[in-house]
Amino acid sequence: MFIKLILFCIGAIIxxxxxxxxYRLPRRESxxxxxSHCPQCGEKIRWFxxxxxxxxxxxxxxxxxxxLPIPVRYPIVEILSAVLFVIIYHVYGFNYExxxxxxxxxxxxxxxxxxxxKGKIPNSVILLGVVLGLLMSLIFWPVRPPSWTxxxxxxTNSLIAFLVGGGIMIFWAAAGKLLFxxxxxxxxxxxxxxxxxxxxxxxxxxxxxxxxxxxxxxxGISMILLKKARMDSRLxxxxxxxxxxxxxxxxxNQICTWYFNIIR
Length: 264
Ligand SMILES: [Zn+2]
Prior knowledge:
Blueprint: H1 2-24, H2 54-58, H3 73-92, H4 96-118, H5 123-140, H6 155-180, H7 187-225, H8 238-263
Helix pairs in contact: 1-3, 1-4, 3-4, 4-5, 4-8, 5-7, 6-7, 7-8
The structure holds zinc ion.
């Protein structure tokens, strides 16, 4: 319980940093300088107004200086990051997988919100993910356990998932363009799936893709029915891929075992 509390706090602090990244990267601002400041009035935020999750509520959801509302994205990202750290610890324990999967969660959380806010998946995040993912799968290779397929989650598996995940996305991007005469999946979406594949391995990449296409289709149809979107609106794909990937990380083995028991 104590470790979970500590990890919750670490996750929240990292989430607070991610908020700065989510705001600054698409605007091509430096991540380090200047320090925390209100995006609306530019006033420096002092440490006691910069406590993850809590400050948002203590400040009554507005900047102490300019009184303009603080976007609700700030506590949402901090809470999500904190909760993900605890969930991954709960499922995998505190070991190499913890670092592997929290790294992926942090990357996915970042692109989910840059995609939602700006429709952008920054190349720098993808590149960082590819480098970290390949390095970590090389280091962790001898100890990662086999999945239900009996195929160990090793470096080769990561590399194949990178190629197959990216390949499926290129195929669907091309098919979507032929069918709907417009771009439904962008280059950022393709690169994102390939990057996540390195961390997920082939089994969970395929499951994550299936889940994300399923939820994106349901969301797209509901939004058209509710008149929140039109047939030609672009739906950001990163949030769906991120949810699909995280569900696969937590329930992947259960879902696949259940599925293969049914069709057997
Ligand atoms: Zn302000």
